[in-house]
Design goal:
Elements: H1 19-39, E1 46-57, E2 63-74, E3 85-89, H2 100-108, E4 112-116, H3 136-149, E5 155-157, E6 160-161, E7 163-168, H4 170-181, E8 187-191, H5 197-201, H6 217-226, H7 284-296, H8 301-309, E9 323-328, H9 336-347, E10 353-358, H10 369-388, E11 398-406, E12 413-420, E13 430-434, E14 441-445, H11 463-466, E15 478-482, E16 490-494, E17 497-504, E18 508-518, E19 524-525, E20 532-537, E21 549-552, E22 556-560, E23 565-571, E24 584-590, E25 595-599, E26 603-604, H12 608-641, E27 654-662, E28 668-677, E29 682-686, H13 693-700, E30 708-713, E31 716-717, E32 728-731, H14 743-754, H15 763-770, H16 785-796, E33 803-807, H17 815-828, E34 834-838, H18 842-848, E35 851-856, E36 859-865, H19 866-870, E37 875-880, H20 883-891, E38 897-899, E39 906-909, H21 915-924, E40 929-935, H22 938-946
Parallel strand pairs: 3-4, 3-7, 7-8, 8-9, 9-10, 29-34, 29-35, 32-33, 33-34
Antiparallel strand pairs: 1-2, 2-4, 5-6, 11-12, 12-26, 13-25, 14-24, 15-23, 16-22, 17-21, 17-24, 18-19, 18-20, 18-23, 27-28, 27-30, 30-31, 35-36, 37-39, 37-40, 38-39
Length: about 950
């Protein structure tokens, strides 16, 4: 649970280039800014008081334990101005720091918040008892006593604080158990938590008892590992947010005891004399139960009873605190069925209950931002009414959401929220029956469950829905039953059911039933990686005697589109579960009944964000219309004024004349730049950072307007909207692609947007330049930076433009790709074409470019052929038959210096000594001299021109 509060509004700035456009739209922009500023919440203050508090718990209530706490108190809270409180619990493997941001935001909303590290974690003492009523729950009761004694906390009676309890996962289970055990709790918000811990870790989807359940070894192992040390377990177990690092930034130095707190060690060590060193900080009975289940793969009655002791299932009728149950759809640890069972049990006692499903969970985090905002709003609304006593009753309507796609603005995921008046449970309001067919199929159970199918990865089950999935079934180890393509879309919300028949020579089978959504191209998606494990006993050896069994699949929220098929897969193995060690072969067939899909006709939830989006869209549309009108007028005027061709530059791809760019604040990025690019040339634009290179290129591409000077392309004056821009291909300011399209689709979309004839595109040449192979068919959101760079260069070359302008084209490329890019650019500058390339890799420019333009502090300091800029060299490169002997000989010559060279060559600074004399000395020593050439690099010339420490004027 990252933050139960509303997020601050997003502020966006709109920048327009021509000053007349700014002047024309300033009123609208100021209005939008004023509205957004008015909506911004104020900054609320608080103070944080860390302390080690000693409480007494255990079956007799006399066992002391030190708890590491932080108390967050809003500014202004006092004995004369008391405030309600929130007890804030963290998830398994976390500490009080895991929920620090939540605590700070709740304090900003006017609540006194007490966050603490549960026993067995972090700096708190004691052992982990899995939210035992005698230990963790009784610890929380003593913290309620501590809150009631604080003079700043509002009370309902002596010793009874006005308090809500909020927690995710492990903390959510505590909230439920505490409310059942202590009637002082006024409201609770349990998130992504369990109903029956034995059923969560030993699930059985045909209704069998937990003792016959299939052990969820993947998650159990992470839980056990998370409690095996001083609280540094898996961060994701701490709810829907990652655990924060240890420490307490709210104070300097070690925490000091709170008033009335007893002394505590806060060592965080496992208790001395632990029964089993493998138990870490787990209590001995919890550790023993885990070790038995993990060894046998089965739950015995004693282990099940222990897990149920820490489960709300048996005490739901005692919960009188109004309850908001928030459960994640992307959760293979505690699926939606756990919240459903809690809701029904609490409501049966007449307690107000509200259920909210969201797209996150243990596998999906907070979900998309707009969905997590909905959860935060519901949380604060619940607390404000039932704890603070403000606002209307929230009601008991049911809300849920599903992934809707990508946000066009930030490319993040977006969820659509829905509501219904009554909670339909897992069966839905209605049902859709779909026939799935297929022959009876033999399936093999592999020895020791290896190899195993993959349905989900802990903390990443949502990948099954969002990224094509991680699910994979092993050939020979699964059976498939498939539907015909759907004639219309189905909105599934709840637990589908399906009937199956199975036979086994052993009389028993462990199976994993999955429901895939298969698109028309055959891509199969397993929603959120959810799977239904079943253990069937008393099976016949032959299929003819097999009886149908009904399997209840995990609840999902998904829209299955028309044309898609539904596939039921029955697998014999799954890497997340323990399966029988002995190899066996089962036979599986579809039952007589259809696949039943629960549906809910939810009403979309109108949100403030949606309303503001429409308002802002209207404002932006008005601005856009004005911009289009101004641009059209400007283009028409420029075209009318600049239809002539300058005869001197008619055959010159690019002529830049006395270019100057000065910004409104007086900053001069380019003061006087003047150069030409001719056909057949590859011209390198060089300069230190801030020299004006990027500004020059931006002016050239019409991204900003010059203050003075002219640019001619084939004799035509360059202005925004000029037709001559179609003769330029460019990569300036990095590549930008639509992430949901493949590389090839992006190239095609770009070409269509140019409006040029389809026949003028050169896709084959562009794809060869990109060198992406089959990856060109992958979505660009999966591309590396180098792959995106190569695709952008191919896009720039797509129409084989006569002038190619590239800004740092080798950025992100590896050495072989850089070498290939060098050859591509040299080949490109033929048949009248030309290239202008800006780069900071001087060695590449030297090997690639025919000409260079060196800019420093907004001015050109040198231009011309690269060899002329490099010029004569005081150093000489010798190719000799024996380099080591030559070094010894030359080292004895007065005035001659042998230079160290990274490439292992013999480079000599003659310092005025005649080269013939040096050669003669080598020959006299019996050393053969094959070649003598001047040695100077472009880098040497560059540093001589701009200086070793030259910095530009701060290029924009």
């Amino acid at each position: 649970m990252r933050s139960p509060l509303s997020a601050a509004p997003v502020r966006r700035a709109l920048a327009t280039r021509p000053r007349r456009i700014v002047a024309g739209s300033v009123a609208v922009v100021l209005l939008a800014a004023a509205v957004l500023w008015a909506a911004r919440p104020g900054e609320a203050g608080f103070r944080a008081e860390p302390a080690m508090i000693t409480v007494r718990s255990g079956p007799a209530g006399d066992e002391p334990v030190d708890l590491d706490t932080t108390f967050y108190l809003p500014d202004g809270a006092s004995a004369d101005r008391r405030v309600p409180a929130v007890l804030l619990a963290h998830g398994f493997g976390g500490t009080k720091e895991s929920v620090r941001s939540d605590a700070e935001e709740l304090a900003g909303q006017g609540y006194a918040v007490l966050a603490w590290t549960a026993r067995g974690f972090g700096r708190s003492g004691g052992q982990i008892h899995l939210d035992s009523p005698d230990y963790e729950v009784r610890d929380a009761q003593r913290l309620l006593d501590w809150l009631a004694a604080r003079p700043e906390v509002r009370t309902d009676a002596a010793g009874d604080p006005r308090v809500g309890v909020v927690g995710g996962s492990y903390g959510g289970g505590l909230a439920l158990l505490l409310a059942a055990q202590d009637q002082r709790v006024d409201a609770i918000v349990p998130m992504i938590t369990w109903n029956d811990l034995s059923r969560a870790f030993l699930p059985e989807s045909t209704g069998g008892p937990a003792t016959s359940g299939v052990f969820k070894k993947g998650w159990a192992g992470l839980f056990f590992g998370g409690g095996g040390n001083a609280g540094s377990g898996p961060a994701g177990l701490s709810g829907t947010s990652a655990a924060q690092p240890e420490g307490n930034p709210a104070s300097a130095g070690p925490p000091s005891p709170a008033p009335g707190a007893g002394p505590g060690t806060g060592s965080g060590r496992a208790p001395a004399g632990a029964a089993d060193p493998s138990c870490g900080r787990f209590a001995a009975d919890v550790c023993a139960a885990y070790l038995r289940i993990a060894t046998t793969g089965r739950g015995d009655q004693a282990a099940v009873d222990l897990l149920r002791r820490s489960s709300p299932a048996g005490v739901l009728d005692r919960i009188k605190a109004p309850t908001l149950l928030v459960q994640g759809e992307a959760d293979t640890l505690f699926p939606l069925a756990e919240a459903d069972a809690n809701a029904r049990g609490i409501a049966a006692a007449g307690t107000p209950v509200r259920v909210a499903w969201f797209t996150g969970g243990h596998d999906g985090g907070d979900g998309p931002r707009n969905d997590s905002d909905r959860v935060k709003y519901l949380t604060v609304q619940w607390l404000d009414h039932y704890v603070k006593g403000e606002g209307a009753a929230p009601g008991d309507d049911f809300t849920y959401s599903r992934i809707a796609g990508f946000d066009a603005l930030d490319r993040g995921l977006v969820a659509t929220g829905f509501r219904t008046t009554d909670y339909p449970g897992l069966a839905g309001d209605a049902r859709r029956e779909v026939a799935v067919t297929g022959p009876a199929q033999p399936v093999a159970n592999p020895p020791n469950g290896n190899p195993a199918a993959i349905s989900s990865v802990p903390f990443a089950g949502a990948l099954g829905s969002l990224l094509g999935g991680v699910a994979g079934d092993v050939p020979g180890q699964h059976a498939r039953f498939e539907s015909a393509p759907l004639t219309e879309a189905v909105d599934v919300a709840g637990s589908p059911t399906v009937t199956l028949r199975a036979a086994s020579a052993t009389g028993e089978a462990v199976l994993f039933v999955k429901l895939y959504d298969v698109d028309p191209q055959g891509a199969a998606t397993l929603p959120n990686g959810l799977v239904a494990p079943v253990r069937l006993t008393g099976l016949p050896a032959e299929m003819g005697a097999a009886k149908p069994v009904t399997v209840t699949l995990p609840a999902i929220v998904r829209r299955v589109e028309a044309g898609h098929r539904l596939r039921v897969v029955v697998a014999t193995s799954d890497q997340a579960y323990t399966t029988p060690a002995e190899p066996a072969v089962y036979t599986v067939a579809a039952g007589d009944g259809p696949l039943v899909l629960p549906t809910v006709a939810g009403e979309p939830i109108p949100t403030t964000a949606v309303v503001w989006r429409w308002v802002l869209a209207g404002l932006l549309a008005a601005i856009a219309v004005g911009l289009v009108a101004v641009v059209l007028v400007a283009r028409r005027r420029h075209r009318r004024q600049d239809s002539s061709v300058h005869p001197e530059y008619a055959d010159t791809p690019l002529a830049v004349r006395q270019l100057r760019k000065e910004y409104a604040d007086g900053f001069v990025a380019v003061s006087n730049v003047d150069f030409e690019v001719h056909p057949g040339q590859v011209v390198g634009l060089l300069g230190p950072n801030g020299a004006g290179k990027t500004t020059t290129l931006r002016v050239l591409m019409g991204l900003t307007q010059p203050t003075a000077g002219e640019i001619y392309v084939f004799g035509r004056r360059l202005v925004p909207g000029s037709p001559v821009l179609s003769r330029i291909g460019a990569l300036v300011e990095g590549p930008g692609f639509l992430p949901h399209l493949s590389g090839l689709e992006n190239l095609k979309a770009y070409w269509r947007a140019t409006g040029r004839p389809w026949a003028d595109a050169h896709f084959d040449e562009a794809l060869e330049i990109a060198g992406l192979g089959d990856s060109v068919h992958r979505k660009t959101r999966k591309y590396s930076h180098g792959m995106r760079q190569r695709l952008a260069i191919a896009q720039a070359m797509l129409g084989l433009p006569e002038l190619l302008v590239l800004d740092e084209p080798t950025d992100g490329l590896d050495p072989p790709q850089i070498a290939e890019m060098r050859r591509v650019l040299q080949r490109y500058a033929t048949d009248g074409r030309a290239v202008l390339v800006s780069s900071h890799l001087l060695a590449e420019v030297e090997q690639t470019c025919t000409h260079a333009v060196v800019v420093n502090k907004g001015r050109i300091v040198a231009s011309g052929p690269v060899e002329e800029i490099v010029g004569e060299s005081p150093s000489v490169l010798f190719d000799v038959t024996d380099p080591d002997a030559a070094r010894d000989v030359l080292g004895r010559l007065a005035g001659v210096t042998v230079l160290p060279d990274a490439e292992g060559q013999l480079v000599v600074d003659t310092n005025g000594t005649a080269r013939s004399e040096v050669v003669a000395e080598l020959v006299r020593a019996g050393i053969g001299v094959d070649r003598v050439v001047p040695r100077r690099r472009l880098e040497d010339a560059f540093l001589a021109l701009v200086g070793e420490n030259s910095r530009g004027s701060g290029d924009r």
